[in-house]
């Protein structure tokens, strides 16, 4: 294991050294943007992109029909579509596509590419993609045809089709968030001719069943992407991805930075050193490192107090997979926990009351931010600021654990393994804080912390094995439903993964999604927040403003243009950046 780690570090260092040679050149044709982070890249296929690590690359290689207007997350503007019309009382959308757009292969963008893209997303829809909310809009269900037999080829092909050169969507019901859903990079338009040539789905009725729910994360389009975006892939290995500006890009504003290299550098100290030397332009580091090691240093610029539209918390799996290695003995004997350990609400309440939010804000967020009462950004409509958040209360935690499992938890104790993303210092710190407080309650309580790769933690195949992980969400589209359904609906994204079902919350979510009455929606979301707090479904992390360090040779990074819907924390696309 040690040799393997050293090998990865050596390779990353070599790649960094080579990149640094270009990185120090002047801006323009020879300039290079170097980005370093701890997470790996899951995929370069937009059809299954559903994490910010992959999204920051895919959003610069592919483009959607519409995008957000500047820094405004509530308004969309044309990108690959030039205009659209709404008909049939909000249940039909007709898009006119832009002329003169080419893919990285040189193929021309046509309506057939858009039709193929959305049909492919509906066919291959899985728990590892963001296509569930597209399927909800177009098919009336978040599932794919394997899980919902009402989905047929006729239903898919009539939901999205070309009428001549016009792309037509037909919805079963009105969806006021439909346009913003199309701005999500997972709906980036793919090169259908290229996709078919390299072995992806052929787009026909004859083969669609073979591709239903298929795992395309590591498929051919992941290996050989072709989008219309300002940057195209040059090379990819386990530790670095390199891209170059696309000479055939259609946009009036051509990319000014020629090359982009994104490197996986697990060691925080190595990222900091590279940044201070000017060998990296953007790096992933926590706020504490920015203020203590970067702020005020030569060549360093920092944007702070930026809008944060993410929500995060520790999820507690109510049905942990047996034999996963995370539950020890599998019994309440002090050496493990049963698979349904977190099914008892008092266990969850004990964990929630053991997390010291004020200390976390002070130590990790340097006093910035505040406790949240709901896994919904407080900048979004529907957040009830009058509801008191959960508090750190050891006595409350003790009482909950004494009630849990009829007193067995307190009497016998437990040992549980919890996971965080390796290299994510803030997650590790939060876990350590929780561990310390829980183990202080009872000497029979034991919490072991395990660091794992991001790709391992996020995979739907591995999620059932985890007892507790950090659960975070950056919005796909600008509507509170994207968070509330995601975290709390029994058919959402996270609730099924942690086996949390609440019929009362499901009913409120359904009503909120079916009304355009803003006041009523706010009322419903407040009810959901209150019940979710009472049931302690998540340990909710406090809100904090975004902060972003960058080398001052990079131009185009600004609080005025910052858009939190863009995956990487600079809040802008690479094509809008330049380098001195």
From TrEMBL:
<dbReference type="InterPro" id="IPR030678">
    <property type="entry name" value="Peptide/Ni-bd"/>
</dbReference>
<dbReference type="InterPro" id="IPR023765">
    <property type="entry name" value="SBP_5_CS"/>
</dbReference>
<feature type="domain" description="Solute-binding protein family 5">
    <location>
        <begin position="75"/>
        <end position="493"/>
    </location>
</feature>
<feature type="signal peptide">
    <location>
        <begin position="1"/>
        <end position="19"/>
    </location>
</feature>
<keyword id="KW-0732">Signal</keyword>
<dbReference type="InterPro" id="IPR000914">
    <property type="entry name" value="SBP_5_dom"/>
</dbReference>
<protein>
    <submittedName>
        <fullName>Peptide ABC transporter substrate-binding protein</fullName>
    </submittedName>
</protein>
<dbReference type="InterPro" id="IPR039424">
    <property type="entry name" value="SBP_5"/>
</dbReference>
<dbReference type="GO" id="GO:0043190">
    <property type="term" value="C:ATP-binding cassette (ABC) transporter complex"/>
</dbReference>
<dbReference type="Pfam" id="PF00496">
    <property type="entry name" value="SBP_bac_5"/>
</dbReference>
<dbReference type="GO" id="GO:1904680">
    <property type="term" value="F:peptide transmembrane transporter activity"/>
</dbReference>
<dbReference type="GO" id="GO:0015833">
    <property type="term" value="P:peptide transport"/>
</dbReference>
<dbReference type="GO" id="GO:0042597">
    <property type="term" value="C:periplasmic space"/>
</dbReference>
<comment type="similarity">
    <text>Belongs to the bacterial solute-binding protein 5 family.</text>
</comment>
């Amino acid at each position: 294991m040690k040799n393997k780690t050293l090998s990865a570090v050596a390779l990353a260092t070599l790649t960094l050294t080579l990149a640094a040679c270009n990185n120090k050149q002047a801006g323009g044709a020879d300039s290079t943007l170097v980005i370093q982070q701890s997470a790996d890249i899951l995929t370069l296929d937009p059809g299954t992109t559903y994490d910010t690590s992959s999204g920051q690359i895919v959003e610069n290689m592919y483009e959607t029909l519409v995008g957000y207007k500047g820094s405004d997350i509530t308004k969309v503007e044309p990108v690959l579509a030039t205009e659209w019309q709404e008909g049939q009382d909000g249940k039909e959308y007709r898009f006119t596509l832009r002329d003169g757009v080419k893919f990285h292969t040189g193929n021309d963008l046509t309506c057939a590419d858009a039709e193929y893209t959305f049909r492919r997303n509906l066919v291959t829809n899985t728990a590892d993609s963001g296509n569930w909310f597209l399927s909800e809009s177009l098919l009336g269900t978040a599932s794919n045809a394997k899980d919902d037999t009402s989905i047929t080829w006729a239903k898919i092909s009539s939901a999205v089709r070309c009428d001549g050169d016009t792309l037509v969507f037909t919805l079963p019901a009105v969806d006021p968030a439909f346009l913003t859903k199309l701005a999500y990079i997972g709906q980036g338009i793919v090169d259908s001719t290229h996709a078919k040539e390299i072995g992806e789905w052929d787009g026909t009725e004859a083969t669609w069943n073979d591709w239903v729910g298929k795992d395309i994360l590591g498929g051919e389009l992941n290996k050989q992407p072709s989008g219309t975006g300002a940057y195209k892939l040059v090379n990819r290995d386990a530790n670095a991805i390199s891209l170059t500006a696309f000479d055939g890009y259609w946009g009036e504003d051509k990319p000014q930075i020629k090359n982009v290299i994104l490197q996986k550098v697990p060691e925080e100290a190595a990222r900091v050193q590279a940044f201070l030397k000017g060998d990296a332009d953007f790096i992933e580091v926590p706020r504490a490192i920015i203020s203590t090691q970067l702020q005020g240093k030569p060549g360093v610029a920092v944007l702070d107090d930026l809008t944060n539209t993410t929500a995060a918390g520790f999820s507690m799996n109510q049905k942990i997979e047996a034999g996963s290695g995370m539950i020890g003995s599998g019994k309440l004997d002090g050496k493990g926990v049963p698979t349904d350990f977190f099914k008892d609400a008092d266990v969850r309440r004990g964990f929630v009351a053991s997390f010291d939010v004020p200390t976390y804000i002070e130590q990790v967020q340097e006093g910035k931010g505040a406790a949240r009462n709901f896994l919904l950004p407080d900048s979004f409509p529907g957040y009830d600021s009058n509801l008191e958040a959960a508090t750190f209360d050891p006595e409350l935690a003790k009482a909950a654990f004494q009630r849990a499992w009829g007193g067995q938890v307190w009497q016998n104790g437990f040992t549980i393994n919890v996971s965080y993303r390796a290299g994510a210092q803030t997650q590790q710190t939060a876990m350590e804080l929780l561990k310390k407080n829980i183990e202080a309650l009872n000497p029979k309580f034991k919490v072991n912390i395990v660091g794992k790769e991001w790709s391992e933690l996020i995979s739907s195949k591995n999620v059932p094995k985890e007892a507790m992980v950090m659960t975070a969400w950056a919005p796909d589209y600008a509507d509170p439903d994207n968070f509330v359904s995601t975290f709390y609906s029994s058919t959402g994204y996270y609730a099924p993964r942690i086996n949390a079902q609440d019929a009362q919350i499901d009913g409120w979510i359904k009503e909120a999604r079916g009304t355009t009455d803003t006041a009523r929606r706010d009322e419903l979301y407040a009810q959901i927040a209150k019940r979710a707090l009472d049931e302690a479904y998540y340990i909710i992390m406090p809100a904090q403003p975004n902060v972003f360090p960058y080398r001052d040779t990079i131009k185009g990074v600004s609080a005025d243009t910052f858009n939190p819907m863009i995956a990487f924390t600079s809040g802008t696309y690479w094509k809008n950046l330049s380098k001195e």
